[in-house]
UniProtKB/TrEMBL annotation:
Keywords from the UniProt entry: Hydrolase, Magnesium, Manganese, Metal-binding
InterPro entries: NUDIX_hydrolase-like_dom_sf, NUDIX_hydrolase_dom, NUDT19
Name of the protein in its database record: Acyl-coenzyme A diphosphatase NUDT19
SUPFAM superfamilies for the chain: Nudix (SSF55811)
The keyword Lyase is annotated on this UniProt entry: no
Catalytic activity: (9Z)-tetradecenoyl-CoA + H2O = S-(9Z-tetradecenoyl)-4'-phosphopantetheine + adenosine 3',5'-bisphosphate + 2 H(+); propanoyl-CoA + H2O = propanoyl-4'-phosphopantetheine + adenosine 3',5'-bisphosphate + 2 H(+); (9Z,12Z,15Z)-octadecatrienoyl-CoA + H2O = S-(9Z,12Z,15Z-octadecatrienoyl)-4'-phosphopantetheine + adenosine 3',5'-bisphosphate + 2 H(+); (9Z)-hexadecenoyl-CoA + H2O = S-(9Z-hexadecenoyl)-4'-phosphopantetheine + adenosine 3',5'-bisphosphate + 2 H(+)
Amino acid sequence: MSRSLKPDLKVWRQAATIVLAAGWKSPGAAASSVQSAEDFRLLLLQRSKSQGFLPGAHVFPGGALDASDRSADWLQLFAPHHLPPRFGLGPAPAQRSAVPELPNSQPTSLPEVADGDAAALPDDVALRICAIREAFEEAGALLLRPRGVRRISESQDSAPDLDCSLEPPPDVSIWRTRVSGDARHFLDLCAQLDCTPNIWALHDWSGWLTPFVAEKRHRFDTSFYLCCLREQPPIQPDLTEVVDCQWLSPSEATKSFLSKEIWLAPPQFYEIRRLENFASLSNLHKFCLEHASERTERWRPVTCVTADGMIQLYPGDELYLEDSHLLEKVLSTEKKTEEIMKEAKKLHRLVQHSRHHYSIHVTIPSKGKHIYPKSYVVNKSHL
């Protein structure tokens, strides 16, 4: 349970998501009927149907930023090797554009942590701690690193190896209950294990602002981080927020979505399709390391409701508008989706034909050195 820094519905709530990509060795054709081109799997957690946000969806671990994720008490745990302002994360990437303020929202100010001190940790550190804490709460994964242990790359020029999770302590279930009840206990757990959250294993990947769909829904400013693990850590859903889990390759996740075995929200589907550009975990890890200083994009999708479906428009699409009036409105048209698609040439959009039928259309180059998913269209006869 998190004590959100910005609980007001009229204010963006900061959140963090961690995409766990773990190495996978094929058990052989006899043991698996599904053939996959990728040598890694992604952790997808199924949310309880009783949850108010994305009930029943398969998502990456994550949640809202808690005040304790910024606490000054973390400074002592990171010392003496990793100190402000960057805590060993390397050069700061270029600043992203400011988040647009929602209509009638209160002016935003620097949040304060529970003990009254001004937030001690910068966003890119606090949000990484948030993502790691949520992975522990929801899935039982301990993405920690013993204090005082440095990677070879921190003192030499060689690239770091793939990371691994920490072996859970015998009383892990007790700690998960404590942390779920009060996020401040995550710092206590790290102190007892003499570890720090392995923020250095989390690579900036993307940023998503919740699009407007309906009134009285929380809007999140979510930072997506990618973490490449040598092997799959033991996972145990908390059976409260999360009721099940699966390790699936990007291509397997797409097939499971189309066959209605799982349901994915548009951002998860987009990111999974983006990750299908990488056939190997080593190539994915190398890509993250080579682009560590790049500024990640933060997107605010614009929803366009057609006569027979819905389109999520992303920056660069010829119909995309930065208009502030669309922060709490949707575009609508009496035209059918097919007609809208035929009229456009400059595309960056996800079309929601039905609950389990999405298509992605990308005809623009990616910004910077990041990578966009390839266009993906499924013939209705194959559904």
